[in-house]
Design a protein that fits this description.
mainly beta, Tailspike Protein, Chain, six-stranded antiparallel β-sheet, three-stranded antiparallel β-sheet, 13 strands, globular
Length: 133
């Protein structure tokens, strides 16, 4: 049997492709600006440990009190990611249908969304992050 070895956490990248350090992740309701229309997101698959927004990043990973962590949501979401200078690195109004709308910065392949036990599991793959203007 062959088993693939991969990092335990997927990473968010900064505008230059480096791991996003001290960035902010905002998760909001589908179709709305994530920063001004936040939804409840969680640190666990059971959706019992709510995360405060914005989520800070450490070395590209969402940080739960300094520990790299995964994020979970009960529904689809909008997302905005900013670097420590407040520059938008990535944003989309619908995690399941990213667009190349001129008001949004998208990447290919899109923000990856997996459904686990009817829950949404959020992560970005650092090697797939390419900005399109």
């Amino acid at each position: 049997m062959t088993v693939i070895i991969k990092p335990p956490y997927e990473l968010f990248s900064d505008v230059d492709g480096s791991p996003l350090e001290a960035g902010d992740i905002f998760i909001g309701s589908v179709g709305n600006d994530a920063e001004s229309n936040p939804i409840t997101i969680y640190w666990d698959r059971a959706l019992t440990q709510a995360a405060s927004q914005p989520i800070k990043t450490i070395a590209g990973a969402p940080s739960n009190n300094g520990t790299p962590s995964l994020l979970f949501a009960a529904t689809g979401y909008s997302i905005t990611v900013k670097n420590k200078n407040g520059t938008i690195v990535y944003t989309t109004l619908d995690s399941e249908r990213p667009t190349n709308n001129s008001s949004e910065i998208s990447h290919t392949p899109a923000d990856i969304l997996h459904r686990l036990n009817n829950k949404h599991y959020l992560y970005h793959h650092h090697t797939s992050f390419r900005l399109q203007r």
